[in-house]
Amino acid sequence: MFSSFWNFIKRHKKKFLFTGAVVGGVYFLSKYAQKKIKEIQEKEATEYIAQARRQFHFESNQRTCNMTVLSMLPPLREAIVTQLNSESLTALLKTKPANKLEIWEDLKFISFTRTIVAVYSTCMLVVLLRVQLNIIGGYLYLDNSVGKSVATPLTPPDVQQQYLSSIQHLLGDGLTELITRVKTAVQSSLGGVSLKQSLSLLELEQQLSWIRAEVEVDSGRPLSSYMLADDENALADQACGLTENDVVTIRLLNETRDMLDSPEFSRVLSTCLNRAFSRLLDNLAEFFRLPVGDSAPNSAPDSLSAVSLPLAKIIPIINGQINAICSEIPSHFVQDLLLNDQVKEFAANVYETFSTPQELQK
């Protein structure tokens, strides 16, 4: 029996060797496949956790952006009102001075200028802080990433403070230059409009469009120049010296300048301005409504041209809009800017750029 068995083995030896090799190969291949699948699953889980962590950090950073904008609006409003003090003129008018008409003309220019400047500077503040805080946020994410040495942070606290203090340009010299530009445009547009002349909301919208065109198009100067000092000496002055931290601060300021000069930034700022001026007109429309039960011939009750008001009556309305625009209490005006989809997308792109390790960007 055993002789027959060994003869069978000899006759089919090659088949047994091949079958054994196949079975062994399948076994080891199966083990290798299981190992690779486990590695892939672990890698995917790690990447998912990292992505979720980064998403959480990003969303937290956006809430910080919103709170920072709201906290900066009162000092912005104070800076505007200080340079464009209409209250002193209204108080002077109550004394019935001899040059009453001249004071009214000054009040006309100041009222329109400060409201329009409030719109521009609030939009600039929203978008600029989105850039700055997402640059900082991206670097902070890298600083806190696994494997990163906390002993050598990319943005030490002193650097963050120096860098973020550059916002003072918008509240200082930048604001003064913007006021000069807007006031020139206001005088050009409204200089020939009599205080007695009546304007409809449609005509008022046209006036604002002319002013915007002169400020944004005809000036030949980018709006970003009012937000951040663009000359290297000024950047160095803002960084206050040449220590290691100051060099990092200057680098952050230059990176910010690159972002402000990008076409995407211009598009986002333009979107904010369009929405902000639209919201301003919505606020003004409340004062141009027909009394209940009245109607103008051939006009719908809510028509933009149905109601006209003398410019002298429009001035106080315009003058008071700064309180709604630069309000630390979340208003429809500010919420429209903070919740704008293009602003959110732009913020995500900035954060993505600066939270990605440099070696992965190359």
TrEMBL record:
GO terms for cellular component: peroxisomal membrane. Keywords: Peroxisome biogenesis. GO terms for biological process: protein import into peroxisome membrane. The keyword Ribonucleoprotein does not apply. It holds the Pfam family Peroxin-3. Involved in peroxisome biosynthesis and integrity. Assembles membrane vesicles before the matrix proteins are translocated. As a docking factor for PEX19, is necessary for the import of peroxisomal membrane proteins in the peroxisomes. This is Peroxisomal biogenesis factor 3. It comes from Crenichthys baileyi (White River springfish). The gene is PEX3.
